[in-house]
Structures are given as structure tokens and as C-alpha cells.
Amino acid sequence: MATRSHHQNPTPSTKKKKTHKNPEANFLYELNSCSKSKDLKAAISLYDSALSNNTRLNQSHFNTLLYLCSTFATDPDFKDLALRYGFRVFDHMMALNIHPNEASITSIARLSAAKGDGDCAFEMVKKLGDYQVSPRLRTYEPALFCFCQKLEAEKAYEVEEDIDKMGLSLEEPQIAALLKLSADTGRGERVYYYLHKLRRSVRWVSEETCKVLEDWFCCKASEIGSDVGSVKEAILRNGGGWHGLGWIGEGKWVVKKGTVEPNGRCCCCGEQLDCVDIDDVETEKFALSVAGLALEREGKANFREFQDWLEKNAGYEAIMDGANIGLYQQNFAEGGFSVLQLDAVIKEMYTRSGNKWPLVILHNKRVRALLENPAHRKLVEEWMANGVLYTTPHGSNDDWYWLYATVKLRCLLVTNDEMRDHIFELLGSSFFLKWKERHQVRYTFLKGALKLQMPPAYSIVIQESEKGSWHVPVVCESDEESSRSWLCITRPGGCEDEGKTGSTMETCEIVNGPCCKSSENRNNEKCDDKTTSMTGKRKERSP
Q1: Distance of CA 115 to CAs 86, 118, 493, Å?
Q2: What is d(CA 422, CA 399) in angstroms, rounded to the nearest whole number?
Q3: Angle between helices 429-439 and 280-297 (to 10 degrees)
Q4: Handedness of CA 311, 312, 316, 319 (dihedral sign)
Q5: Which PANTHER family does the record match to this protein (predicted)?
Q6: How far apart are CA 383 and CA 381, in angstroms?
């Protein structure tokens, strides 16, 4: 019988003991245990013991201690202890010439802010540059929130400028803090600026941010005027949903909380919300990006020929991904390219657009095969006669053609393609998703019957209207959009007078609870898919 060798591998428990035999490693292991269990006193005791035993400390030891101290810096029972040891640990770290990293500076900034020293917190962030380390948004937060709480507006704005210089983007908590600071210090123009920054950053706001907005619209603001004509032009130029020209209207603000009907009409004030598009600058940039990528991947002569053709035939209001529609649900034994499906969608889009034919992008190989089939030839020839078809050349990718045409003509795109391959190659995903929401038409065939899913009647984003009113969606736990609360902010006389309109905020009227409709007729209004207008193209454009 074999006997157990003394040279066999050690048991797991033996391994564990050997792993932590080194004093420095053992100290770090025990510190991490304290961090996980949030035991500040035990960690401090370990630190004092390490000093007594002359244990060699490194950056990881100091960072763990600093993190624990910063975590307890706002706890009334541990604040004094956390601050005292936190700064002591940091001074010790610097005395040993151990360079701090972003985590170290974030912790010491939090400790500085906890004792009300926003200046020290901000200075710590600036020192990161000395160590060639880039700060993160969390590194700036202590200084920013400290200045906001102490109503030191100029200092808070300086922190924001530094954040922008570093290429970082504010999120809702930071924007809400700056918005509240600006409201509390009577800076109306800044409130307007941060309200738009919030609009660009989030689709809906938290209940806490909602309360900040409610409070602001009960305050006074400086008078700001905008020309009514320029407001309409700005909204069209921006893609709808905002103008950015300043406060509009006069008199008391009326703040209500209510819901929005499926057709996009606010139940509180009756105003129609927009389906928001990307703006003119973004659209042009998008079109150039698509064209640039297509010219890299496609035959340059072929795609340029398509660009020239599109310039001369720019009247289309809908583009169709012919292959996507024709091959929909055709993965069965007798399946193939369904001409009938494609024709059904063509006819439906023709009807919806007031008898205007859509443009179908289809590969020339596919079109040739259809023309060679006697059963399909007449229908395909009919499409060609009506200017419905554009055939892409051999070796080309249809996707670039229908995507470019849709962006360039600012019209609808009929496809079930999620375009995931394009998102990462083009601009930001949020930019692309915003465009898709406004322009993509999806379809299904249920037992042979076509059903189109048009773009939504309105966008669930913060909206500023031509009349000067605001509509702010609030976070919703339910999946049902009909249950989402919106903050409806209006005042009488907004944009009613021609020429200049001024705004002087007075004490607002706040109405909570269910909102009443302004007329009985709106109770009967329903959103009908069949009568949804063709909303892809923005017809009115400023030069």
C-alpha cells in the first residue's frame, strides 16, 4: 500500500497560511476584510499595529485605509475619527513619497469636502496632473457638491469648466446640484442653461430633480425676450422639442403633474409634444460619416453615382430596405424572396404618404432574378415605371445605400434591421438611437396581414415648446408609458403677442394629482396607427 509522501502538495488550508505569511501581504488581506465588512475601528487598529511593527506600507494599503475613512466621513458617529485618521494616513503616504492615484485623490477629496473644505478638495484634483493621472467624474464630485451646498456658485462653475476641459460629461446628480445652486442664488440664465444640459443628458429625471424644478418655477428670474419668428426657426433647425433661445412668456408659472396621451398630447395643458429628431448639424455630420464609410467599403464610382442620382431625385419621403422585407419570415422549405410582401409594404407607404411612391433599395442580382420570373415580371416592371426601384451594383452592400438615402433626405426608413453593425462604426450610440427612434418604421405580417409600427407620436425627453412651456418626464417604475408622470410647466400668454416677449417669474401655482383636460373633446382622441402621418421628413427648414 502506498504511503503518504511528505513532499505531496500542501492542503488548501496550508496554502492559505503560506500565502499570508508575508507581513505586508497579511496586513493587506486583513485590511481588505475590514473594508468588506465596513469596520473602520478594526482597520485603524491594524494600521496602528503596522506602524508599531514597522511594516512596510504600499499604495494599496494606503488606498484601502483612505477609502474606509472617506466612507465614514459623513457618519455622525465616526466622522471625527474618520477625518483625523484619513488626513493622517494621507500625510504618511506623501511623507513616504508614495504617489497617489485617482482612487487616493478621490478619497482625500471626499474627506476634505466632509469637513466643508471644497477648496482643498478641488486642489487635490488639480494635483493629479503632477502624477500624469487623469481624474474621473467621481474625483470632482466632492468639490462640486461642497461648493453647491455652500452656495459658492462661481467656484462650482469653475469645477464644471474643469470637468469639461477634461472631456468628462456631467450626469443627472451633478447637473441637478448645479441647477439647484443656480436657482437658490437667483441665476435665471444658468437655470435655463442647466435645464438644457439635463435635456441633453437624460431621457427622464428622478423625483429629486423633479422637486428642484418645481421649486425653481416658484422663484423669480430675470426678464429675457425672444423673437417669436426665430423660435419657430430654431425648433425646426434643432430637430424639434426645443429652441434654446431663453425663457418665453410672462406671468405666473403653472406647474402640474400629469400624464401624456398615446398620441403625444399633454393631458394637463393640451399641448402636442414633438417626436424629437437630431438637429441640422448632426444630420449633416451623420450623412458625411455614412458617405465616407461607404466610399471606403464600396466601389467609389458606384456610390458616387448613387449620390448624384439622389441629388436629382430628392423627393422621396420613405426609403425601404427591399431585401429585409422580401426575406421576412421566409426561412421555411418553400420560402424565398416574397414579392407580395414587398409590394404590400410599398402600397401601404404609398397610401400613407398621400400617393407618393417610396424608394426601394434592392441588389441588381435580386432584381434580375425577379424579372426572369414570369410570375413577378409585370409587378417589378410596374415598380420600375413608378420610380420605386434603385438597384445596387454587383459586389455592393445595400445597407450603405438605404442608410445614406434616409439620412440625406431626412425621411422614413422601413426595415426591421436593428443596424447594430453601423452603430459602433458611426457616431455615438445615443446619437444613432435617437435618429432610429425618429425615422425607423418596423413591420410585421400576421397571417398575411401587414401591420406597420410607425415612429412614436412623441419622444420621452425633456421638451421646450414654441410657447415657452416645458414638459419633463419623471422616472417610472412601470413598463407602461401611459402611467409615467410628466411635469407640465406653463404660463398664460406664452408667445401670444407678436414681436418680443419677456419673462418675469412670479410665484407659481402648483397643482398636483390628476390633471384635467382643457376640453371634453380631448377625452375622445385616440392614436390610430392607420392615420399616422408620414413624420420622417422635416418639411420646413430654415436656410
Answers
A1: 12, 9, 48
A2: 9
A3: 100
A4: negative
A5: PROTEINACEOUS RNASE P 2, PTHR13547
A6: 5
Cβ atoms of 150 and 118 closer than 8 Å = yes
pLDDT tens, N- to C-terminus, the chain (543 residues): 444 444 455 555 444 444 556 889 999 999 999 999 999 999 999 999 999 999 999 999 999 999 999 999 999 999 999 999 999 999 999 999 999 999 999 999 999 999 999 999 999 999 998 889 999 999 999 999 999 999 999 999 999 999 999 999 999 999 999 999 999 999 989 999 999 999 999 989 999 999 999 988 876 544 455 556 688 888 888 888 889 888 888 778 889 999 999 999 999 999 999 999 988 988 998 899 889 888 888 878 899 999 999 999 999 999 999 999 999 988 765 668 899 999 999 999 999 999 999 999 999 999 999 999 999 999 999 999 999 999 999 888 899 999 999 999 999 999 999 887 655 555 555 678 888 889 999 999 988 899 999 999 999 999 999 888 999 999 988 777 878 999 999 987 554 433 333 333 334 455 554 444 333 333 344 334 443 445 565 544 333
- Nearest CA to 388 out of 347, 409, 357, 355 is that of 357
Helices (H), 386-535: 398-409, 420-423, 429-439
- The answer to whether 273 and 459 are in contact (CB under 8 A) is yes
- Find all residues with CB under 8 Å of 399, minimum gap 6, and list them: 321, 417, 419, 421, 422
Length of the chain: 543
Query: Which residues, at least 6 apart from 403, have a Cβ–Cβ distance to it below 8 Å?
Result: 290, 413, 419, 422
